[in-house]
Each structure stands twice: as C-alpha cells, then as structure tokens.
C-alpha cells in the first residue's frame, strides 16, 4: 500500500509499505477514504515530540471503510463506513471505565500519562496512523462507530479529533451563562472551541491569533471577536482592558507547544528543544484569566518541563483543566448539534490533497501558505 512515511524533521514522503494485517482477534483493517493533517501532526513534523521514529506513518484523524475484521469483532463487518476516534483504548481498564479513554492503561507502555494515539510517536504507543491507504484499528468493537447515513463524510472526519477536541476544550472551561471566553489560537481546534463556547452559554467569545486569514475565519465561522496579538504592545493588557480590567472568566489554550510571541522562549523550546514546548500561550492564559477563573488546555505539549508561571496561577486561584480529548464521549452531543444545524464542521476545510502530494500538504500547512486552515488527505485521489 501507499503511505506517508516520516524521514526526520521536515522530511515526509509517500512510500510503499506492507498492508497492515490482523494481529489480534479484536482488530479491524480499515481502507482509508479521508484523512487530515492536524496541527498536532506539525509538532511531529517539526521534531518536537520525543521518540518519533523514522518510518512511522502519521495521521490520527481518519475515516474509511472496513476491509477486514478479526474473529472476535462483533460490531463491525466488511463494507461498513466508520469514523475512528484518535484514541486507541481498550474500553475496560480502570480509566476507560470512567470515560477517560485518552488515558487507557492497556494500550501504551508509557501509559503512566497518555494512552494510545494513532500515528503519534512511540511516546503514544507506536501505532501507525491513517495517512495511508489502509490502517490497522485495534479494539475495533470499542473505538470506531458506523457513520450515520445522514452525516456528511467531511463532518465525520472532523469528529475524529478537531471538532471533538475543541468541544471538549469548551467543556473543560466549565463555561457558565454570561462568561467571557478567550480562545488562544485560531486553528481548527480553536475555531471549534470558540463555536462550542456559545453553545455552553458564553456571552462573549474572543479569539486571539496573529494570522489575519485565521482571524477572519474566527469572525465568520465562530462569530467571535478577534484580536491580532502582533498588533498589540501587550496582549495581556489588551485583554484586561476589554474585560473591565478583571480578565477573562475562561481562557482556552488551543495553541500548545509551538506558540509564537516571545523570541527567547520560542528558540529555547521549538528550536533548541530545551523545553517540552513553548510556554507562551499558557503563560498568556494565566495572565489573562481573572482571579478565580478557569484555564482549559487543549494545545499539545511534550513531556519535558516547560517554564510555566505556576506560582501566578496558584496565587490567582485559577483552575487548570486539561487532557487529551476522550473523543467518543463527545460524539452523541456533537451528532445532535450537527443534525440540528448548530455546527457545520466541514466549513473549516480549505484544501484537499492527494496522498501522493502529502509532502507539499505538510509544507503548505506548516508554513501557513495559501490561507490553509484544514487540509484533508484523499488517498484515492
């Protein structure tokens, strides 16, 4: 089969790989019909995540058609159209039993922290991802769901991570009616977090980024107020001014490890790899939240330390909530919102790229060229 293969930082290409096979009776093999490049994939592409091994196939956002199932699989059959959450999880361990699918204890040798994630380094279990013609799906009776006939395939694709994660980010913010919500980052997760905040009762939603085309999308898609931090002397002071000098009730960090904004911190983290990620966005969140406010962290960070202003968070009485999204837990409510017309996830898709051109797709997305917000990979194109 043809698959995207990692060859080192900023080096990906399409190669011939062995088609995955059934390794366990609970496995399924899925023929991928759509995949996506996620902002989190760029952390791998840039060499930010440890134990990202040469030869790995990325891609934790994908949908497809069941090609083959193991002898124990009961809920799926060949020919079913399925959406697959980015979490690999067993469904029965201590954490899965509590709905913490992203923290499954049985699918990752490093499970003291994160569970398993498709295509996201050996830190997250070493599972090959869906930027390929076929992908092996473990625990096939637990993770994948058959795509409802009425659901658009692009919407289904975005439910596998970006939409679910953005919605989860707003959930973690514990937004109450009348709150002012600030979202850091106008990528796909930030856009979905902003749109979801309205559904949870926010009175104001403010999105902060430095790319005008992404801010325009936040304005039109998420109906948010926008601020370009590159045009401000001090973004925290700007947020304070627009919130009666109190700060935001909820701040959602949808940026993570490669935030721009402070040259020294960006160099020590993104360039010299001295930290698990640039702490800029998280520190802005701590400074911009009101005393007693809540910070929700959706941006991905590496396992190394980051120079976070934890003392300020403690002294302000902030609540910090964070996790990798337990995707399938969000699906029932998201399906309702999509069917009722409150969310139209596919509207953020800007590019469709054949699998053979995935190297160009990564460059386009990484360099923020051509107004790229969400690129979709089509293996059969």
UniProtKB/TrEMBL annotation:
It comes from the Bacteria. One of its GO terms (molecular function) is oxidoreductase activity. CDD domains: FDH_like_1. Residues 25-143 form the Alcohol dehydrogenase-like N-terminal domain. Residues 188-259 form the Alcohol dehydrogenase-like C-terminal domain. InterPro entries: ADH-like_C, ADH-like_N, ADH_Zn_CS, GroES-like_sf, NAD(P)-bd_dom_sf. SUPFAM superfamilies: GroES-like, NAD(P)-binding Rossmann-fold domains. Its cofactor is Zn(2+). Keywords: Metal-binding, Oxidoreductase, Zinc. The keyword Cell membrane does not apply. Belongs to the zinc-containing alcohol dehydrogenase family. This is Glutathione-dependent formaldehyde dehydrogenase.
């Amino acid at each position: 089969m043809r698959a995207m293969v990692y060859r080192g930082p900023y080096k990906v290409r399409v190669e011939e790989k062995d088609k995955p096979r059934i390794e366990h009776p609970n496995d399924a093999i899925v023929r991928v019909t759509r995949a996506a490049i996620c902002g989190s994939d760029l952390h791998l592409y840039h060499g930010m995540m440890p134990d990202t091994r040469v030869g790995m196939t990325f891609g934790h956002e994908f949908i497809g058609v069941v090609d083959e199932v193991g002898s124990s699989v009961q809920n799926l059959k060949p020919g079913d159209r399925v959406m697959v959450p980015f979490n690999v999880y067993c469904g029965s361990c201590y954490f899965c039993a509590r709905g913490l699918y992203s923290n499954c204890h049985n699918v990752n040798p490093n499970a003291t922290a994160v569970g398993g994630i498709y295509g996201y380094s050996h830190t997250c279990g070493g599972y090959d991802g869906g930027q390929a013609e076929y992908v092996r799906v473990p625990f096939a009776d637990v993770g994948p769901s058959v795509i409802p006939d009425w659901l658009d395939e692009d919407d289904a694709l975005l439910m596998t991570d970006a939409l679910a994660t953005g919605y989860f980010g707003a959930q973690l913010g514990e937004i109450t009616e009348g709150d002012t919500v600030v979202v850091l980052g106008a990528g796909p997760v930030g856009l979905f977090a902003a749109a979801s905040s309205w559904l949870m009762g926010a009175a104001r939603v403010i999105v902060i980024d430095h790319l005008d085309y992404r801010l325009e999308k936040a304005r039109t898609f998420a109906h948010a107020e926008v601020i370009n931090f590159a045009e401000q002397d001090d973004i925290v002071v700007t947020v304070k001014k627009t919130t009666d000098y109190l700060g935001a009730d909820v701040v959602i960090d949808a940026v993570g490890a490669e935030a721009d904004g402070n040259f020294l911190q960006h160099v020590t983290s993104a360039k010299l790899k001295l930290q698990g990620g640039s702490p800029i966005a998280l520190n802005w969140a701590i400074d911009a939240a009101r005393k007693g406010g809540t910070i929700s962290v959706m941006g991905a960070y590496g396992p190394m330390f980051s120079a976070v202003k934890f003392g300020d968070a403690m002294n302000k009485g902030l609540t910090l909530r964070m996790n990798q999204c337990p995707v399938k837990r969000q699906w029932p409510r998201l399906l309702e919102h999509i069917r009722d017309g409150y969310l139209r996830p596919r509207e953020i898709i800007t590019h469709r790229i054949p699998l053979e051109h995935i190297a160009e797709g990564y460059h386009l997305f990484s360099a923020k060229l051509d107004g790229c917000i969400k690129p979709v990979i089509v293996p059969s194109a």
